[in-house]
Amino acid sequence: MLEAGNNSELPAIPGKRYFTIGEVSELCGVKPHVLRYWEQEFPQLKPVKRRGNRRYYQRQDVLVIRQIRSLLYEEGFTIGGARNRLQGEEARDDVSQSQQIVRQLRQELEEVLRILRR
User: Fold this and answer.
1) CB neighbour class for 97 (10 Å; exposed up to 12, middle 13-18, buried from 19)
2) On the CB side of 15, how many CA atoms lie within 13 Å of its CA?
3) Residue 4 within a domain
4) For a FRET experiment, which of 28, 70, 100, 117 has its CA 20 to 30 Å from that of 45?
């Protein structure tokens, strides 16, 4: 998802479960208002909202934000282009996962067939 070369100047992500918008802002080098805007533009970003509508991001959200930042700031994508790129990656992941499930199911069915032929 995120190449090692990108975002090398950003701090390491601590081993916490949830991060506040301020922490994510520092971890990703992006201001909080930009994060709130990206939530509207990228359906992949869905931080947990708790009391008082406070946002709590998970590690996966931080990785997605870093990838968005890389696409926009380093690779020069537009918002729409970055959105399409991320959706394309999700679609490929879904197809790959489906193919893996089909292969596993086929192996199990072949094993059942071998047992029944005995």
Assistant:
1) exposed
2) 0
3) no
4) 100
